[in-house]
Amino acid sequence: MSKVFKNRWVRAAALAWLLAGGIHHAAAADAAGGAQACDASSAREERCLMRGIWRLTSFYRITSEGKRVEWCHGVHGYLDYTSAGMLFASINCDEIMSPDDPAAKYGYMIHYAASYVYDPATRAIRHSVLNSSKLDMIGTTVVRYLGSVDDRVLSLTVPSDHDSITHLEWERQE
Questions:
Q1: In the prediction, which pLDDT does 31 show?
Q2: 71, 59 Cβ separation under 8 angstroms
Q3: What pLDDT, on a 0 to 100 scale, did the predictor assign at position 27?
Q4: Which of 9, 68, 89, 90 reaches 20 to 30 Å from 23, CA-CA?
């Protein structure tokens, strides 16, 4: 087994244990009424459509010069927005291409658990990070913007401090 492959498995196992600690937050949020219910009358609202399990289909950044930069080679992952106001995200790369890849600073993987709040006026989704494979994310709030959502596709954007915009496209899995 290659060192990279073995190291990824060790990290993944440790992360699974770490993220399991966030599950009690979901139950607490639900019990406290922290998440709004979706019913037949609200099912087509964005806040309801975004809930569910999504598979990553595209992850790239557009630079200020208009150049498209892929996150990494073979990017794959899942995102789960729960009705309890929690989310779980997991993104990995198949191959390490270059130390200049955007994914390099994250060790070619990023996993986190967070509570989330959606603001329909600004289309901002605020992720309050509870656990993460990138330890300095824990306790921070990261913002994603809803590009579009329907029964099949979820599109998110993330403005960066480098005058670029990151795009993530997800396909519904449930």
A1: 37
A2: yes
A3: 43
A4: 9
Q: How far is C-alpha 14 from the geometric centre of its chain's CA atoms?
A: 18
Q: What would the pLDDT profile of 113-164 be if each residue is shown by its tens digit?
A: 999 999 999 999 999 999 999 899 999 999 999 999 988 999 999 988 678 8
The domain locations on the chain are 3-172
| Of 115, 112, 160, 118, residue with least CA distance to 136 | 112
Locus of tokens 């699974």? 16
pTM score of the predicted model:
0.75
* Alpha-helical regions (H) of the chain: 3-20, 23-31, 46-49
Per-residue pLDDT of 39-76, as tens digits, reads 767 767 888 899 999 999 999 989 888 999 888 888 89
Structure tokens at 132: 């993460």
Phi and psi of 72, rounded to 5°? -170, 180
**∠ Cα 116 173 137 (to 5°):** 30
User: How far apart are the C-alpha atoms of 14 and 159, rounded to whole Å?
Assistant: 30
pLDDT value of residue 1: 38
d(CA 123, CA 65) in angstroms, rounded, equals 25
Amino acid at 157: T
| CATH code of the domain occupying 3-172 | 2.40.128.280
Helix (H, G, I), strand (E, B) or coil at 109: strand
